Amino acid sequence: MLAIGDCAGGETKMGRLDGKVAIVTGAARGTGASIARLFAEEGARVVLADVLEDLGASVAREIGASAHFAALDVTSEAAWQQVVADVVARFGRVDVLVNNAAVLHVAAIVDTSAEDFLRVVRVNQLGPLLGIKAVAAAMREGGGGSIVTVASVDALRGQNGVGAYASTKWAVRGLTRVAALELGRFGIRVNTVCPEAGSAFMIAPYAPPGVDIAQVIPHMQPTLAYQKTRALDELIRDVAYAVLYLASDESRSCTGSDLVCEGGNIAGRIVKGMPGAR
Ligand SMILES: NC(=O)c1ccc[n+]([C@@H]2O[C@H](COP(=O)([O-])OP(=O)(O)OC[C@H]3O[C@@H](n4cnc5c(N)ncnc54)[C@H](O)[C@@H]3O)[C@@H](O)[C@H]2O)c1
């Protein structure tokens, strides 16, 4: 059994992912790196997979001996097969897959080219399908597993400017339900997490000049007033905890579902002047 640290009195703390082997895509930075860190803290051996090789390898080194980096372009089926074969050869199993890698494109629909649309589809939609396909046999042989795809609040509502991105995020919720139905008999659970918060890196290229996105994102969850006072890293860590829950055996009864982690943005709207408004 793996121990993740000594508590006062010399007792060891049990990790929520003790003994599990996890692959996290898009883990070189942002949400994926936060998920990988949390998984390692909770006792998993974690493979950080990304196209950003230097950054991903350095994050894995920083996490420590339980973390490893694998170069992976999630749009390549051959690359997926290689990574999963390497993980099985090294660790003997795959228990958890987090489909976290994604790209953003911001443009009005009338200004979105077919090329831009398909670039987003390939990473955000084809990537998770190939990932599910690649790990299914290994998970089945290991007696089951948990697949979590990081979707978005944009998988739950519409927002101008994100036609390509939102299409793919709605699509992975559908893929998740089909995968849950097809793989449940092998003990494989498939769910999504739908966050509002994410890495500033993703949005920064589309921000108006002079705007610090890391300062703006905490203000995008207005239903919970205290979110505005929290640092972006903390909000991203909340997302990592949602993924951790679905990855762990604590969520054994959950499959084909969405864990919404977006500060109440889709709960509705506050009508000023009506009772209960601030
Ligand atoms: N940034 C946000 O505001 C926000 C909000 C809600 C949901 N999300 C979702 O959170 C997840 C993580 O994004 P983030 O916010 O950390 O952004 P990010 O841009 O920092 O991280 C995305 C990661 O995916 C990697 N990646 C991109 N294309 C890849 C490919 N073809 N193969 C492998 N890796 C690839 C990138 O190199 C990067 O490390 C994504 O699914 C994103 O859609 C983000």
Question: What does it look like?
Answer:
By secondary structure, the chain is of the alpha/beta class. The protein has eight helices and seven strands, in the order βαβαβαβαβαβαααβ. The chain has one domain (8-200, 236-259): Rossmann fold (3-Layer(aba) Sandwich), CATH 3.40.50. Helix 1 packs parallel to helix 2 and helix 1 crosses helix 8 (232-247). Bound molecules: nicotinamide-adenine-dinucleotide.
Can you summarize this structure?
The protein is an alpha/beta fold. It contains 8 helices and 7 strands. The protein has one domain (8-200, 236-259): Rossmann fold.
CATH topology type: Rossmann fold
Question: Could you give me the name of the CATH homologous superfamily?
Answer: NAD(P)-binding Rossmann-like Domain
Specify the overall morphology: globular
Radius of gyration: 19 Å
Give the key terms.
single chain, 278 residues, alpha/beta, Rossmann fold, 7-stranded parallel beta sheet, 8 helices, 7 strands, globular, disordered N terminus, binds nicotinamide-adenine-dinucleotide
SSE layout and pairing:
Blueprint: E1 21-25, H1 30-41, E2 45-50, H2 53-63, E3 67-71, H3 77-91, E4 96-99, H4 114-141, E5 145-150, H5 163-183, E6 188-195, H6 200-203, H7 213-216, H8 232-247, E7 258-261
Helix pairs in contact: 1-2, 1-8, 3-4, 4-5
Nicotinamide-adenine-dinucleotide is lined by residues 25-26, 28-32, 50-52, 72-75, 100-103, 123, 150, 152, 195, 198-199, 201-203.
